[in-house]
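Sorry to interrupt, but I need a hand with the structure work. Go ahead and set the record down below:
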Amino acid sequence: MLIDDEPAQSRLISAIAARDGWRTIVASDAETAIAMLGTREGMQLSAILLDQWVPGDDACSLIAELKQRRPALPILMLTTSASPLLAVEAMRAGASDYLVKPVSPDRLMEALRTVTTREAPRDELAPLTEKMSASLDFDAMIGTAPKFRTALAKAAKAARGHGHAVIEGESGTGKEMLLRAMHAASPRAKESLRFINVASVPPNSIESVLFGHEPNAFPGAFDRQIGALQHCDGGTLVLDEVERLTPHLQTRLADVFETGIVRPIGAKHGFRVDVRLLVSTNMELDTLVKGGQFEEALAKKLGATRIALPPLRERTGDIPALTRHFLGRIGEQPGLKHLSVSDSALALLAAYDWPGNVRQLQSVLFRAAVYCEGNTLTAESFPQLSELLGDVESDPHSNAHEGVGVMLYTEDGNLRPLEEIEADVIRLAIGHYRGRMTEVARRLGIGRSTLYRKLSDLGIDNAA
C-alpha cells in the first residue's frame, strides 16, 4: 500500500515497484488507508509506504495506529526531511525504515526487499538511509588498518593537486565521505561543488543534468538549464557510481576533458570550462574497462590516481573505534543519548562480515540506540546478529597479532621482517597526519632527511 496524495508520484512509485514484481494499491489519505486494511486487498499487503506529507505532523501517530492494527506489517516512511529526530520518532512509532526524498529506484527497492525478506537475518541488516550529516575532514575517517591509512594518505596527497581521481570500493566503505574530504582539502575548496549520485538520477535526465540544455532541445524542455559541468567551472564535479553512466555519456565526458568544452543539449556553441572530476565506483575501474562496461577514453582522462577503500571485513580491528565514534555522534542527535558498549557487543560486531560495510555498521548502531532503554549496548541489543551468529565469546587475545593498525605476525604465526613493519608504521603515520611530512617526522622522532631517506630505502611513495 502506498499512502500518497500526489498522483504523479504515485504513478512513478507504482511503476518502479512493478519492475520488481510488486502490485500497488494507493490510498490518498490516512482514513482511506486505515479502511483499506480491512479489505480483501488490504489483508494481502506485504508492506506500507507512507509519504509523510499526507498526515504531516501526525505521521508518527498514523504509523503507530497502522502498527497497532497490523503489527507484523512493515512500514516505510518517505519524507523530505533529513531530521534525525524525525527518524527516531518514526522508528519508535513502528517504522521499519526512513527514506529521504528524492529516493533512487534502487534504494526504494532495496528497502522494500529488506523489510519483506525473512529467509535470513542477514537481509534485515541492510543499511538504512544516512541519518546524520558527515564531517568533511580527513581526521573524521576513523581507522588504523594499513590499507585504509594508505588509501587516506593517497587521497590527501591527491586532494592537494588539481588532477582527476577515482575512488574504488564496495558500497558503504566511505567513498562519498572521502570524496567530500578531498574537495574540502583541495585548492578548489572555496569554488563550486556539485555532487551527483548517478544511480539516483533518472536515465533520461542524466545527460541534461550533466551538460545542460537549451529551451525546446527536447519535448518538455521549456527553459534553459545550466548543466553541472558548466556550474562547476573552476570547481569540482563529483560523480558517485560513475559506472552507471551510459557508454554514450562516458564518451561525451571524455570529449569534454579532452577539449575543455561542454556543449549543452540543443546548443549551437559550447562553453570552455575548467572542472576537476572526482568519481567513485563500486568495482575496479580496470576490470570495468576490460569487461567493456566502461569507456577506455574516459578511464584514461580520469588519470592514474586510483584509491581503493578496503571493505570493513578486511579491517575488523577498526570496529571498536568506529563503534565508539558512531555512538558518540548518535548520542548528539535529538531524542537520543550517549551510550557505552560492552565487550560482548563488540565481540558480536567484530564477528560479522558486514556486507554493507561502514555505512551498515552505523545504521545498525543507530537502530540499536533508538531502542536501547539502558545506558549500554550489549549483545542483546543486536538480536538479528545474535540470531545469525549465535553466541560469540569475547576474546581478550583476539588482537594479539596486531599492533595499532600494523600486522606484527605473518599468517603462520612468525614475526614479519622489521623492514616491513617499519614501512607499515611510516605509511600509517603519513596517513594519520595527512601527508604533513614535518609532523610525521616529529611524531616518529626522526629528522625530515632521515624520513625521506627511509622512504627511498623502503620504496615508499610518500602518498602511500
